[in-house]
Specification:
alpha+beta; FAD/NAD(P)-binding domain; globular; binds flavin-adenine dinucleotide; FAD-binding oxidoreductase
């Protein structure tokens, strides 16, 4: 298509929502896409990467539909774009409960949920011995449900992979902070650029961006920290399942002798960027209750990211009220790697069908409104 006829789209934010939207739009020859990303406080790069929403205790119907279909969509996207196992892997997940009666209940829930989510795959009860077979370092005695369709993704690799594919189709990626001047104009380094559409996928940075257009956004920042441990005795096999132990931090063996423990949930933190001693203590002591051989000297890395959450913990996405040019998404909270790619796909479909309203969402006016 002639460049002059192409619709110009800006995407602000290169986390999982922005990067997926950039990939999807770039594949369509009618869009010329520019993605701006400052990289600050990015949740996607810091995230643990667990994709296993089916046994969540959350009662929000829209959220569950979005997370369930989001998990299925990631699997499709991984296949379509030929992601490596280090980027996306169906490793299986193990979810534990302390009381045997709770394991029974969990198993019933899993079997019921699988009726509408066949991608959950095999569901089976596993005892402490079976778990040690799958995860040899676990020393705690746990009672669990294993779900073979559970997956994990590496957020950083996932985003880089999609952006690289987008670049092959003409996507322009600019690593810089921008501001909004009006509904169609982006300001970077004191230069303005006009677009037909702007996608605001800025995670916890959305308030600042929309403030200049006189909108109030009801999202709050939540700091998440996690640790990476080197556990050389751990098998190099990357296909070990993720362990989600009740009341403890998640335990994610990545293979290659690497183990991730995460994450903290710290609302409205004063310090947004630094890894803290308190987080180290919280994460390590929890991990040691699962594997009592772990030591502080095993620590090889830390990650810090900022989640955006809403008062009802639901994400929102869609047209900014009274605008035909700006689409927004935020509030993905602690399950945004699971819901983010599907949210991006739904945002992209709004360009073709502006009035589409899915069964995944509540009215956006619950979360964003013009200041009085
Ligand atoms: C420690 C941790 C563990 C997590 N674990 C999981 C998990 O296991 N499973 C799961 O499903 N989810 C998990 N999450 C949640 C998930 O990571 C987030 O919900 C999701 O990544 C949010 O994606 P996003 O694209 O909306 O925002 P982000 O990933 O935060 O990306 C927004 C981007 O916008 C950029 N930006 C903001 N303002 C501007 C501006 N003015 N100009 C240019 N760029 C700008 C930011 O720098 C950032 O790069 C975790 C989060 C954390 C922090």
């Amino acid at each position: 298509m002639k460049k002059s006829k192409m619709k110009k789209v800006a995407i602000i934010g290169g986390g999982i929502v922005g990067a997926t939207a950039a990939y999807l739009l770039s594949k369509e020859s009618k869009y010329a896409v520019t993605l701006y990303d400052s990289g600050e406080y990015q949740a996607t790069k810091a995230a643990a990467g667990i994709i296993s929403p089916w046994l969540s205790k959350r009662r929000n119907r829209q959220w569950y539909a979005l997370a369930k279909d989001g998990a299925a969509y990631i699997s499709e996207l991984a296949e379509e774009t030929q992601m490596e196992p280090d980027t996306y892997l169906k490793s299986g997940t193990i979810v534990t409960r302390k009381q045997p009666a709770d394991v029974d209940e969990l198993e019933q829930l899993a079997l019921k949920r699988r009726e509408s989510a066949p991608e959950m795959g095999e569901i089976k009860r596993v005892n402490a011995e079976n778990i040690r077979h799958l995860l040899p370092l676990v020393t705690a005695d746990l009672e669990d449900i294993f779900i073979s369709g559970g997956a994990r993704i590496d957020g950083d690799r996932f985003v880089s992979h999609l952006l690289k594919l987008g670049e092959k189709h003409g996507l322009k990626v600019i690593n810089n902070q921008v501001k909004l001047v009006n509904e169609q104009t982006v300001l970077m380094d004191e230069k303005e650029k006009t677009f037909d559409y702007i996608f605001v996928c800025a995670g916890s940075g959305i308030n600042e961006l929309l403030d200049s257009l006189n909108y109030e956004v009801l999202v709050h920042p939540q700091k998440g920290q996690l640790i990476e441990l080197a556990v050389p005795k751990y098998p190099t096999d990357i296909s070990a399942p993720v362990l989600m132990p009740e009341g403890e931090k998640d335990f994610m063996p990545l293979g290659h002798g690497k183990l991730i423990i995460g994450a903290t949930h710290e609302n409205n933190p004063e310090n947004k960027t630094d890894f803290t001693e308190a987080a180290l203590h919280e994460l390590l002591t929890s991990a040691m209750r699962i594997d009592n051989n772990l030591k502080e000297k095993d620590l090889v890395g830390t990650r810090v990211g900022m989640r955006a959450f809403t008062d009802d913990f639901a994400p929102f996405f869609g047209w900014l009220a009274n605008s035909q040019h700006i689409l927004v998404a935020s509030g993905l909270g602690s399950s945004g790697l699971t819901t983010g790619p599907l949210i991006a796909k739904l945002m992209v479909s709004l360009l073709e069908s502006p009035h589409l309203f899915s069964n995944y969402e509540k009215e956006i006016s619950n979360y964003v409104h013009e200041k009085g």
